[in-house]
Request: fold
Amino acid sequence: MLEKPIAIYRLVFILAALVMPAKAEIIPANYHKIAIENNIPTTIFYAVALAESGHKIKVGRYRPWPWTLNVAGIPRRYPTRNAAYNGLIFFLQQGVKSIDIGIMQINWRYHHNKLGTPWHALEPIHNTRTGARILNDEYKKTGEWKQAIGRYHSPGQKPMQKKRALNYANRVIKHIQRIKH
Reply:
């Protein structure tokens, strides 16, 4: 009697292995915790982090990178928090305000009050939690995850902003497909 359920589980496992991408990403525990705290599906949340700051750290491994700044559309990855902080301070002193910061690439111009100080903005857990709150706020406005994802990146209502939001949401969906559920 037990053999039938075991056979079904084996079949499901084999099918999942065939359907799942060979280099499936596993979601780290902190992303699960923060997603649950903010009522966000974990795969969506982690896929947003991958879309925002992800890069290859080893052959076949793709991870969000906490020491990332995006200035004028150019991503800059730093080896340490101190190096990223020095870069952030440099750009702020130059008068640049539109800088995306950290794992979740939170824009300083629009969200500096949520990020706190430049040093605090680069603290990975704080940055990730702040991004989760912003994503959840967009979901509350739209009631639909694909729209919320797009608005996380481009919340405006002009046609080009809406197009950027849709393109971004589609990019996040591709990341979702790489995540091991």
User: Anything to note?
Assistant: The chain has one domain: 26-178. DSSP finds nine helices and six strands in the chain.
